[in-house]
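Please check what follows.
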Amino acid sequence: EKAVNLKKDLAEMQEWMTQAEEEYLEKDFEYKSPEELENAVEEMKRAKEDVLQKEVRVKILKDNIKMLATKVPSSGQDLATELNVVLENYQLLCNRIRGKCHTLEEVWSCWIELLQYLDLETAWLNNLEERVQMTGNLPDKLDAINDALESLESVLRHPADNRTQIRELGQTLIDGGILDDIISEKLEAFNARYEELSHLITLEQQLQTMRETDHMLQVLQESLGDLDRQLTSYLTDRIDAFQMPQEAQ
């Protein structure tokens, strides 16, 4: 009777493992939203705990079969063979569920890291946009504009490492078919804003170059005007060339 009960327990254990494999490992998952991904991570954590908790039951079965084998060798030998199959399948199930749980946790960590980098770079873009607007709204004074542009250039020296991380993390998730629509939308919006601000900065710098050139021309024109008036006065007063200051000659 004890051998019959142990055989039944082994069959139940094998049936439970088959169901666990179908439920946790053979389903096709699509993670199209952060909520779906987070729920999948939590589900796999529960699955891992559930499977590992069965380790106690497996050990009890193993001990009982060994004890039976010492008392009834014939029955114990048959059960030992079945036990080895169950133990092998159980270990395989544990390893696969641990592996999938670890993978999903890594994917979730990758998603959170991507959001953190996007937050950092968005804050930097906000700062950059504010500096561009300040530069554009300044009165047309070269010193003030130059100071603003120097401030803007200091912001532009922001390292590109974060943008590299955003691109790589996003591509990794998209390649895995995970949150691909959401991530593609976020990356597209971020890149579009970055390109727009880069274009505005280029225009602002070009405008500043034009302002500086115009200022130099005004100074030169004023200087030539002063010189023309001075020379005209010399001619009017019939002053000999050798009597003129050296710069006028």
Remarks:
- The chain has one domain: 1-214.
- The chain has a mean pLDDT of 81.
- The two ends are 130 Å apart (CA to CA).
- The longest helix spans residues 73-136.
